Amino acid sequence: MCKCSRDVVEKVVKDLIRNFDKIREQKIIMPNKRKLNFIDLFSGAGGLSYGLEKAGLNCLIGIDFLEPAIETFKHNHPNSIGICGDLKEISPADVQKMIGRKKVDLICGGPPCQGFSTIGPGNANDDRNHLFYEFLKFVEFFKPNHIMIENVTGLVARKNENTLLSIFDCFQKLGYELDIRVLTASHYGVPEARRRVIILGNNKGKENFYPEKIFANYGEENSKLKPVRTVGWAFENLMEYRKKIHNHDIEAAFIKSNLEQARINAVPEGKAIRYERDEKAYLPEELWFDHDWNTMSEKRFREAKFARLDRAKPSPTIVTNAKMYYHPTDNRYLTAREAAALQSFPAKFVFKGSLSKQWTQIGNAVPPIMAEELGKAVLKSHASRKKKKADKGPLDFEQIRSYAFKYDKDTFDNTAPKQQELKV
Ligand SMILES: C[S@@+](CC[C@H](N)C(=O)[O-])C[C@H]1O[C@@H](n2cnc3c(N)ncnc32)[C@H](O)[C@@H]1O
Questions:
Q1: Of 283, 368, 374, 375, which shows the fewest CB atoms inside 10 Å?
Q2: pTM of the complete model beyond 0.70
Q3: Is 86 in the pocket of ligand 1 (CB under 6 A)?
Q4: What digits encode the pLDDT tens for the residues 340-389?
Q5: Cβ pair 319, 414 in contact under 8 A
């Protein structure tokens, strides 16, 4: 063969290999047909599992000690095992028996991590240490290719720096390459401004891909991004399934106190009362609060009160408290279904247990639409041959923190951490 044609053949082969890698990363061809299996520790109702399954992964088992949460999990994950039990008392070997010889490709969950660093993994008897250690034990036993940890942004606060370093250290000793990011749920199509810390890791030395931003911020003009989803969108699209609305007890969302009724009646859509100027702007004098604003710390309520959602914006972070936010137009709180819709649960996802336990499950959950994007990102890492670049140094805490705790001025997100507490 002449040199010229050999060059051409080499180029064609190189192009083919490059394209094949690209196609694999885009999941057009999977390395094999088997779905990746995962175990969800601290599964709650299963918001995370639900989204991961939507992305194409297979949930083998979810474990949580809250009975109604596992009832919910089982109802909505009919092909997975749901175990109600304390993870301090369930060993990985027990779980192995339940799932048989199936390969575990991913272990995910949201173990409480705070306090871990101060005690270290050796002291498994300390309560604060236990739960993260349980997670680690499962990873050590099953050696999944991928891990995913979800946590509140407080994990990256200055006071938890050593905790994070210890977490990285423990997983690195087990052969995992870890990355950490703070993600905003609304960037993936969740109608909620929730932010969460997501740690991804793998033991194949590969790059950990994170989902790309697909939806714009509220008010952001960017033709490459889809417009942000809003409270109005959620209420129009995620409430009704086959002419039925589950978990939608409007009477339970009524306000009992006349004074509270009168005050919320006066607060316009999208507004809340936190400062004296809000009180003066929205409430008639007879409904003003009976206190001296000047004697209050920072001359404001610690948390915004009478926060009425705005149909034109994404909702602030849904929490476990049913009385945190008010309906955009009605003088009442939200129903559990409305909160679930804002967390991007589909209308057919039914929550079990008492109303307060439904709120616990909803407020604690990873929004399924965000979880789906995380699942796609794990599949991408799995299919990719891209090696992780060597870290340029220790974790850049300042950079992570600056994003985690920067909130728009006008947000009344009650879960935004207090500035003085975080020293940012
Ligand atoms: C943040 S929530 C998980 C939410 C879940 N990932 C989702 O997307 O729906 C944490 C869960 O850990 C559970 N939990 C806390 N301590 C536990 C323990 N010792 N054993 C089992 N579950 C526990 C709680 O009941 C709670 O449901």
A1: 283
A2: yes
A3: yes
A4: 999 999 999 999 999 999 999 999 999 999 999 999 999 999 999 888 88
A5: yes
